[in-house]
Amino acid sequence: MAGIGRLARYGLTQPCPQDLPLWDLASQRPLDEEAALILEQIGRAADPDLALRQLHRLYERDPSVLAEIGGKEDLRIRLLTVLGASSALGDQLAAVAKGWQALTHTIPPRYEVHSGLTDVAALRAGYQRGLLRIAAWDLADDADIEAVMTEITALADATLRAAYRLALTRVPSAPRLAVIAMGKCGGAELNYVSDVDVIFVAAEDEDLSTGTGVAAALMEICGQVAWPVDAALRPEGGRGPLVRTLTSHRVYYQRWARTWEFQALLKARPVAGDAGLGKAWLAGLQPLIWRAAERPEAVEDVRSMRRKIVDQIPPNEVDREIKRGPGGLRDIEFAVQLLQLVHGRADDNLRSGNTLTALRELVAGGYVGRQDGKALEEAYRFLRRVEHALQLQRLLRTHTVPVAPAAVRWLARALGLNETSFRSVWVAHAAEVRRLHAKLLYRPLLAAVAKVPADGLSLRPDAAQRRLELLGFADPRGALRHIEALTAGVSRTAAIQRTLLPVLLAEFADSPDPDAALLAYRQVSEALGTTPWYLRLLRDEGPVALRLAQVLDSGRYLTDLLTRDPEALRLLADDAELRPRTAQSLVDGMTAAAARQTDPAAAVAAIRALRRRELFRIGSADVLGLLDVSTDPLFPAQQGSAAVPPKGGTAKAAAPARAAGQSAAVPPSEGGKAAVGQALSDLTDATLAAALTVARAAVQAPEDMRFAIIGMGRLGGAEMSYPSDADVLFVFDGGTDAAALAVAEQLRTLLAAPAPDPPLGVDADLRPEGRQGPLVRSIAAFQRYYARWSQVWEAQALLRARPVAGSESLGAEFVKLADSVRYPPEGLKREQITEIRRIKARVENERLPRGADPLTHVKLGRGGLADVEWTVQLWQLRHGHAHPDLRQTRTLFVLRAALRAGLVEEADARMLSEAWVLCSKVRNALTLIRGRASDQLPRHGRELAGVARLIAPGVEPGEFLDDYLKVTRRARGAVERYFLS
């Protein structure tokens, strides 16, 4: 043995055998130029020491090998690369005289070489020779992994056909039998070491006996030649007969097959035996395969199967399993196959059994994003290269990355990497696969598409119009024109729209006005048509598409907001983004946006743009049922057993509470809408605060002038609805009346300027003397007025007064002044109570719009908002001096305080609360539907259906109206007991 010496430069850690003429021990250098070339190539091998040992074995058997590889570069590279990468292939070469000469060929031929073979030994030798040449081509010539898988599969196909011919010699007569390749063999993506999955199909009953003999013989021969043949994917698995007839297969798949079995059939391919029979078998099953995804449980079955596979991995291997583990090959395959099952029903291009081919078609068809598809393909190719390198080492079936450093180094070098870069690339690919697997396999849109019947996925004019008619579109031809406009052409945009629209149409069909929802979707799509992220967001990002459908279904209000600000669509991707922002964050954001502008009008336009975005955020969260619901222990029946499920619920879920006697129209709590009212009030507070800063700067108000805005009415009570104006009082201290008036006028002018957003009316009519009084008063003037001239209605108006913007200290002073007026020390006198009742009667008679239905007017009608609020406010005026808990600005909070103070019976408090909550919800729903303020609940038609759908999903419109009338009638009875008597 020659010492190591300078051999280390070739990556060798062991000495060169003395009888292998490569190294001169005396000079410590290669014997000649050819020896140097051989040693340099050995140094490039995955395991140089192994390559040297294996070469020595070949040399001992055939010394001519050194001369051959020394003078032939291609042969030298192939042979030494194989010897350093695979001890098993080295063993095969050492066992066969001149076996290495098979590597002189440069390109693996297609493997029909077995056609003349008549015995198993010859077939085995031919298979091993073919596999050796593929491995050399793969490792040394840097062959494309997809081409390598194709060649391995071609070799397996040829081996199966040759084994079939040999098996026929073992039976008395040839049956009509087809061999169907499944799994990786069926998909033309075999590994070096894999079981070959097959299904055997006989033509008729008379072919079963001999067919079973041929099948058993084929399995035996292949096991002796190359690999086990696994028929476990057949009907009933290992418990079922090895061979079934064509008819038996069809019956089984029609009646008993589970989802995973159809998933497996995606890769089915006739490979040997009777080709016509194999094609007939596959053709007969195609309709069943492409209907499997329509089973209610299909999508979840595939997801569940993937989870079970992961659970079966030993815990100490789960992070090293490149096939079954998270981020492994199975994640990619399951995502691709589920997408195929769902979308392949209407798109024949997706029906390939090959993973990479199917993935590319999914990308081309717009079902998977380009970047996502590229990432998955790169990861798949890398993981398959790792799998091949692992298996080639010892020709063992393995998918687990080793732990030992030497083994990892061998693997990394076989891939052309070092240990560090291998781990880095592997971890990066696995993380991306995990992310994309979750994104694709669990996207809500996928389950929604699966629910659409296969014939409903077609958007051809004839099929689409019939579908639209069945879905209830009032103008199918008009709807079809919208569809054609969205899907025309061969662009990727049109392709993605063809994927989305069948699902969206089904969603729109549940709305009161499907035609309007589709039109709105077209308008949004055209507004965002050139934006690259728009359709990707709908297709890829969680529930965005389905949420958009719900938002568009809700009516004009949110649709108009979205068409004016299409970028707001991004908010639908994440629950956290739909959570209303805090009051302080709103003020900070609006103030910062205004500060970036130099012109006051532009500054307030920026504030209003942010307000528009926030209105869409709040409205969408409202429609989607994502706002937090507060609990109220004082009204457990209202909170805990509501007949109406949360938004997105079902009529079935409503049944238990109805049995308990509660109205279906009654929402589960005031919390959902109270949250809306609070969010809208916070938004108005912030808008006023930011606009006030701009207005003060615009008129150059004195710095020492304190100026405050006092919220009144619904703003003061933090109970605003979508159409509410901002009822305010303007108060100042320091400076002049003219300067303060300039600030207020500038504020109102800037906020009233025409702009593409819902207006925010600033209404100061509740100020002293009403419209005849000055717009702005000093705190001293307010004090004088309330001390000398205040009337009882003004004390009532002050019950909701709270500072919303401007000077905090001045706001606190005003609250102290308001308390002395709204909570009179001795309560109300009899004549004052009479006056309040008289004013209430006058409001009912004079302010109810002409022709309005008093039974269904949510604000001024019987049992409506005004009834409840005036009753609660009378308690505050009469008893606020004695019960501090009544000194609050929010209606329901005061109602609870009144219950605790013994001013109202619990049953009556519940009736009043239910009516106030329901009327608030109806008022908001009417605005969402109509896109404008409305207080009249219709008694029939689409708008009633829309209100019912928004508030009580699953409840029929007529039933909802009956419940509304029942709730408000009971509330009116309570009002008559407490307010009118």
Task: Note down, in words, how this protein is organized.
By secondary structure, this protein is mainly alpha-helical. The chain folds into six domains: 5-104, no CATH class; 142-289, 2-Layer Sandwich (Beta Polymerase, domain 2); 295-436, Nucleotidyltransferases  domain 2 (Four Helix Bundle (Hemerythrin (Met), subunit A)); 444-553, no CATH class; 583-630 and 670-822, Beta Polymerase, domain 2; 830-978, Nucleotidyltransferases  domain 2 (Four Helix Bundle (Hemerythrin (Met), subunit A), Up-down Bundle). The strands form three sheets. Strands 3, 4, 5, 6 and 7 form a five-stranded mixed β-sheet that branches. Strands 8, 9, 10, 11 and 12 form a five-stranded mixed β-sheet that branches. Strands 1-2 form a two-stranded antiparallel ribbon. α9 (208-225) links the parallel β4 and β5. α14 (329-343) packs parallel to α18 (419-441). The N and C termini lie far apart (117 Å). The model is unreliable at 629-634, 636-662 and 666-674 (pLDDT under 50).
Short précis:
By secondary structure, the protein is mainly α. The chain folds into 6 domains: 5-104, no CATH class; 142-289, Beta Polymerase, domain 2 (2-Layer Sandwich); 295-436, Nucleotidyltransferases  domain 2 (Four Helix Bundle (Hemerythrin (Met), subunit A), Up-down Bundle); 444-553, no CATH class; 583-630 and 670-822, Beta Polymerase, domain 2, CATH 3.30.460; 830-978, Up-down Bundle (Four Helix Bundle (Hemerythrin (Met), subunit A)). Strand 9 (726-733), helix 33 (737-752) and strand 10 (762-763) form a beta-alpha-beta unit.
